[in-house]
Amino acid sequence: MKFAIVGKAAILPNMGSFTDNLKSGIDNKVLLGHNNNIVKSYYDVDVNKYFDPGFFGYTPKEAEIMDDQHKALIYLSWKALNSYGFLTKNRLLARTGVVTAVSSPDKLFKDPGNKSNMSYSYFINNIPDTASTKISYKFNLRGPSINVNSACSSSFSALKTAQLYLKNKDIDMAVVGAAKVYYLADEGYQYVDGGIFSKRGECRPFDEDADGTVPGSGQFVYLIRRLDDAIKDNDEILGIIYEVSVNNDGNNKTSYTAPSYNGQVEVINQFYKNNKIGRDSIDYLETHGTATKLGDALEVSTVTETFQRELTIGSVKSNYGHLDTASGLLSIYKALDMINKQYIPPIANFKEKTQLVKNLPLKIPKERLDGPIKKIAINSFGIGGTNGHVVVEQYNERRNWGEVVNSLDEKIQFPIYTKVYENLPSLSKTITDKIIQTSREDKLRIIRTLLLDQKPEENSQWYEYDFNTNKCIRINGRANVSDQIRNIFSLVPKICIDSEQTNLNKGKNETNLKEANITTKVWRLVEEYTNLPKQNIQSKRVNEIDVDSFILIELVDEINSLLNREIPFDYFINYTGRIDEFIFEVIKDTYTSEGENINIIHGEHQLAQQNIVLFHPAGGMTSPYKVMMEEVSANYNVILVSFPKELITERDLTISQLADIYIQQLKNRDLFNGNVILGGYSFGGNIAYEVAKKLPTEEVDKLLLIDSHPFTSYISKESKNITEEDYNKAIKILIEQDPSLGETATINDDIKTIWKINHEMLKRYESTSIKKIDIEAVLFRCKEPENEEILTTLNIKDTDKTEWDTLFKKFKIIDIPGDHYSIFSKRNLIKTVGTFVLNNLLVEVQ
Q1: What is the distance, to the nearest Å, from the Cα of residue 655 to the centroid of all Cα atoms in its chain?
Q2: Which family does it belong to (predicted)?
Q3: Contact criterion met (CB below 8 Å) for 802 and 796
Q4: CATH 3.40.50.1820 in the chain, residues?
Q5: Which pick of 123, 197, 291, 562 has the fewest CB atoms within 10 Å?
Q6: Rounded distance between C-alpha atoms, residue 344 and residue 368, angstroms
Q7: Where in the chain is the domain with CATH 1.10.1200.10?
Q8: What is the pLDDT of residues 259-303, one digit of tens each?
Q9: How many CB atoms lie within 10 A of CB 14?
Q10: CATH for the stretch 2-393
Q11: For the chain, what percentages of helix, strand and coil (3-state, to nearest 5) are there?
């Protein structure tokens, strides 16, 4: 049966010079020399130069641990499907299968200690089993998806498997991929006498000086369809490939790893019998050609036996080394280039035939030969005895896509997908420059894809861009093809933004994590694992984070390690709140365990007495309360809650979260006795309200608000940012108003920082959080007016404090002497406030 190759993509060293390298007989290796038995000869391929994690929906963390072989196949699958116009053919994609040939990355064998500490995500991203299914998942391909391996003949085994699925009509298209990445190649390989690898560091198939092969790196993806279907659907057919013949040697050989003459002869004979084509029609044979003495000698013997005529042979391993699981697909890539450009290349590094070849009817060109060449046979043999043979044939009825372009009256939309709008000009220019340098054939293919296959999604945001005029350019399909190409690739007329920016800001200053607070550290982990900046996800619900489950497992594990906790994974995935709420929940215990900021004045409290809990003002200190509550503490347990020093770096803390911390601290000390009085001066009153709101009504006796501003005083639609200079100015005004403040240590850097943190909490308070609670409250209101300059500097509205009235079941106002700041700084006024508090504790609020 005949099949059509309707798409291809590859990564190889010096990829842009592939044809020239073959025609000139260039070996693309890097040879650094020898060190005893270590040979530093390798083929340099950097997969990560092609693979953009964000484009394919991976986080940098996932990409970092993923096998480069997997990354290469994902990228090449996208490139082939996109370049040849299949990404929008959803019905065909639904009947597309994936067969890959990938082995375990040799980095696992080079670092055996890594296995014992291997995380689940590392495991799942490096085992060969997941190579094919990653492709199916990324491109919604719903046919069979498997990975196969038969050592050096793996890619032919994969191709055979895909052809069987196509032949049985289980699928209508197959993605066939194979990849080999030789990790740590620049460290060299160990030469072993009699082994497969060359002591010289050069692969010289069939040469008198041949002494083995060199490990190479390369990756390939082909799109395969039944030939009749490809013709019917007007696919671009790059070549015809016959059904692969595959067998195994069995045990008819000297050892398990040795090749078998009989096995190789049988697989070749089987191919021509099954496919019913004459061997005399073969113009060239691409051998397995490993340049080992035994392997080459056996292969030329089987070729002579099965063809019985003069035949030109070669081996691409001389140009790119031995690609192991991917070696067969490299041979097919070479064959397609040869039949479509009509040439036969020389073997790189070749000088003189080995004695075994000299007397055989096999031609080995030392220079490039021109065609005609229509059919190329290919051998692929694997250690363990699985052999393969196939023929690739030129397709002569290829359509002229230039004519197709000319025949269409459609606008061409050329989308550039980017997640950062600001990058559009530079990105567009980069792509434009690269496309200008591509061949006419590739330009026509892109135009064909844009015209025939790409359809912009509904509701897409399209931006016009022209480097010269900043106006939209519309290109008509009836224009002359050469002009069309020049226009479309000298200017980029259509630019598409597909989503908001998701990558982390790489240019920002990184916080030193050793000095960062716990919340910052947890957030950094979340950003790292999700590849999303905090501002993009802090308000999202946990179940809205689109990250693979094995990455979430790793994230939870790292959070547990950081906090020395054991948060169950189920707790994370079943959490119904927002991500910022989740982070606070997991770090909260870090700040609630010690409770060193809880102070009970006048010794141990007596359980028979009622508890009064007073929360700190914005400055965080509670020492003036000791003077204020001196008389009160004779009959009540007075509990003072100051601002915990460890929270000084928690700049994103909310009042609700701070209240949760204080509630937990007080419960840990058993200081809620079921009928507690809550209160505080200024900001302390706001905290008392928030705590009361969270507690059962029957547990709170009443609320004491000591000249506290209503929340509406701080909540503003204005975007004024309170600067460090503003706070310094406010402090200066306070000291001028009360010089004693400047003589004490109360206005120090910590106090100023805490003041700013708490003030910013008030500014961020959400109006929807203000609600009525079913308890009594007393407001002790200063008689003297507020300092307007301080209010203006700190963007505080001089709101009537009677607004508190609407938030309680019963509410009472007691006017007290002094102004807002003097009642907490001047001893005589502090004591006076304490007297007012004591006199009203037992008075029922009317």
Answers
A1: 34
A2: Belongs to the thiolase-like superfamily. Beta-ketoacyl-ACP synthases family.
A3: no
A4: 603-841
A5: 123
A6: 6
A7: 518-592
A8: 889 999 999 999 999 999 999 999 999 999 999 988 999 999 999
A9: 15
A10: 3.40.47.10
A11: 40, 20, 40
Report how far residue 50's alpha carbon sits from residue 690's, in angstroms, rounded to the nearest whole number.
Answer: 53
Q: pLDDT digit string (tens) for 722-742? A: 788 888 888 788 777 766 655
Spell out the alpha helix ranges (H) of 195-316. 227-232, 261-275, 293-307
Question: Tokens representing 809?
Answer: 């079941």
- Which letter does DSSP use for residue 803 in this model? G
Give the span between the Cα atoms of 594 and 656, in whole angstroms.
20
Chain segment 228-264, per-residue pLDDT in tens: 999 998 888 999 999 999 999 999 888 888 888 999 9
Overall pTM > 0.85: no
Q: Kindly list the distances between the CA atom of residue 152 and the CA atoms of 12, 101, 292, in Å, as whole numbers in the listed order.
A: 18, 10, 14
d(CA 47, CA 36): 30
Q: For the domain covering 603-841, report its CATH number.
A: 3.40.50.1820
Residues 521-543, mean pLDDT to the nearest whole number: 81
Q: Which among 287, 283, 448 has a CA at the least distance from the CA of 370? A: 283
* Paired tokens of 375: 């059919």
Q: What's the CA gap between 336 and 91, in Å, rounded?
A: 28
Architecture of domain 518-592: Orthogonal Bundle (1.10)
User: What is the token pair recorded at 261?
Assistant: 């003459």
- Cβ partners under 8 Å of residue 747, min gap 6: 731, 734, 735, 741
How far is Cα 793 from Cα 723, in angstroms, rounded to an integer? 10
Q: Where in the sequence of the chain do the CATH 3.40.47.10 domains occur?
A: 2-393
Report how far apart, in Å, the C-alpha atoms of 128 and of each of 68, 99, 132, 242 are.
11, 12, 8, 27
Distance CA 565, CA 583 (A): 13
